[in-house]
Amino acid sequence: MTLANNKTRQHIQQVDYIRAIASLAVALFHLGGKSLPGLHYGWLGVQMFFLLSGFIICWAIPENYSWALFPKYILKRITRIEPPYIASILLTILAGYLLNTNYRPDISNILTHLAYINNFIGRPYLNPVYWTLGIEFQYYLFIGVFFPIIIKKWGAISLPLICLLPLFIPVPGSTLLNVFPFFALGILYYLYLTGKRGLTEVLIYGVAVTAIGFYSAGWLPMVAGLLALVLLILPLKRHPAIAFFSKISFSLYLTHDVVGSSLVAFMGMHLPKTFGFRAFEFLTGIAVSISFAYLFYRMVELPCLQLSKRIRY
Fold first, then answer.
1. Which residues cross the membrane (predicted)?
2. Of 70, 124, 155, 189, which is the most buried if we count CB atoms within 10 A?
């Protein structure tokens, strides 16, 4: 399937499946799935998100994109993600105070969160999911600068070369370069789907990127990334439940730990430590997290999404 001469803006149903599965996997992992069979692999949803971002951000960029459009491009991204991110930070601070009245947030740490630089300077995260947002923002900057080069005739060869960099030069721990194979696979699928590169070329680069990723990122994370790629390729049809969880996926990702995990921790301090009560805490945490994520989506994320769409290239 290619869209060689007409990259339209139709909705890609496969994207919904990845968003829904990845966000639920991460939420279940943080809400207690670490100790439950199967769910302790939920952290791999992050790698699925990385591959999806590699594809979907390229897909959202217009065909006539040039460096002159970078300010509008990055403004659209900031408008889309920054207000929900800030709202979730405020929510995290509020929860910290409610759980411990002596809690005092570190203002400098909040500022480094807003600048997405905790990855580089080793500062602690207010919320365990925030490290991935720093990497995502690094990718937005990267693709905004290098997209015009990558889509050129020999531009795609840069992708496996970039994947090699962490093997030869020291880079900070949680940075884009260390997880770039996931993004690169998403970019390569975009290049194939839009007809910018042929299947043979994409397969050669894809195999190279995957091999490097198995070595640098580990086999299990790469398997999760490849699962996301398979989902992108499969002819999946719309499903109402999948569409719902896709819609609230970003809100669920931002808020599940501070809302659901805080609730589970609170109940754990006051309820008997039996399997039945632990299961009750887990299921309640999931239900409350999903409900809150929907409200957060409607009240915070959706207005930002609509506003970002009003920014025209």
1. 17-33, 39-61, 129-151, 163-191, 203-236, 275-297
2. 189
